Amino acid sequence: MTVIDSLDRPDVPAMQASASAAIEVSHLVKVYKTARAVDDISFAVPRGSVTGLLGGNGAGKTTTIAMIMGLVLPTAGRISVLGHPMPQQRADVLGRINFESPYVDMPSRLTVRQNLTVFGRLYAVPDLQGRIAELAADLDLTDFLDRASGKLSAGQKTRVALAKALINRPELLLLDEPTASLDPDTADWIRSHLERYRKRRGASILLASHNMLEVERMCDRVVIMKRGRIEDDDTPAAIMARYNRASLEEVFLDVARGRARDPAS
Fold first, then answer.
1. pLDDT tens, residue by residue, 142-190
2. Are 38 and 228 in contact (CB under 8 A)?
3. 129 domain residue, yes or no
């Protein structure tokens, strides 16, 4: 039975989400024609935590995030976001979450202020111009608020994308490679701002990243995916101990190259 089948079946019980989980995924599957992009995965993101979603290209990370957001329908499985089943109750959730990726461009001809205004109106943000001014001050956008988005540098575009992601003060942030292609100083600045936001708002973050140092620094828990399946799910320290490695980068290479865990762990 697929999740689509379950939408109209009264005999299928609703997913019982844990009150402590921002996201719960249970036996999630996504099949494109004959390819299983996501293959029976289950994991949870505790409220107030940062969970890393790791994997190489084609591991299924982006598809998983798209299903969590309700943008892509699962072939099978259950998803709960902030206590609501997805995609059935997507309308109850979207105003409380947001997404950021450097690979998703804003309309290039609109100014930064215009883009933030459009997204703020979509989220029905109260005192929107005040919120934009607050974000401009926090994220150092003031000097280019009225510049066309297509004329920004990579670092400026990333800060604007983060402002868009924070415009509605989300309880849950879904981040897809938020510091990709940034210089080390700008990337560190973005990470620090995200950490401050999480602590200040008690927000939850699901972070998809190839940057192992970023994941080690920010994440309370790490889910490692390979070919659509979960290879490991634990704290960074526990995973490194299990593979007898000193860094997540070494673990990532072991998983990617099919090396076994330390048999003693």
1. 999 999 999 999 889 989 999 999 999 999 999 998 888 788 888 898 8
2. yes
3. yes
Is residue 262 in a domain? no
Given strand 229-234, what is the order of strands in its sheet? 97-100, 172-176, 204-208, 50-54, 221-226, 229-234
CA–CA dist 87, 144 (Å, integer): 37
> Phi/psi at 263 (nearest 5 deg)?
-65, -20
Amino acid at 20: S
d(CA 68, CA 231) in angstroms, rounded, equals 19
Please write the tens of the pLDDT for every residue from 85-131: 999 999 999 999 999 988 888 999 999 999 999 999 999 999 999 99
CB 221 within 8 A of CB 213: no
Position 98 scores a pLDDT of 97
- Domain region containing 248: 3-256
* pTM for the predicted model, two decimal places: 0.87
C-alpha 63/C-alpha 99 separation (Å) is: 14
Structural domain tally of the chain? 1
Q: Per the domain annotation, does 261 fall within a domain?
A: no
DSSP bridge partners of 46: 21
Is 265 a member of any domain?
A: no
> Do residues 176 and 214 lie in contact, with contact meaning Cβ atoms separated by under 8 Å?
no
CATH of the domain at 46: 3.40.50.300
Tokens 């930064």 belong to 112
Task: Report the residue count for the chain.
Answer: 265
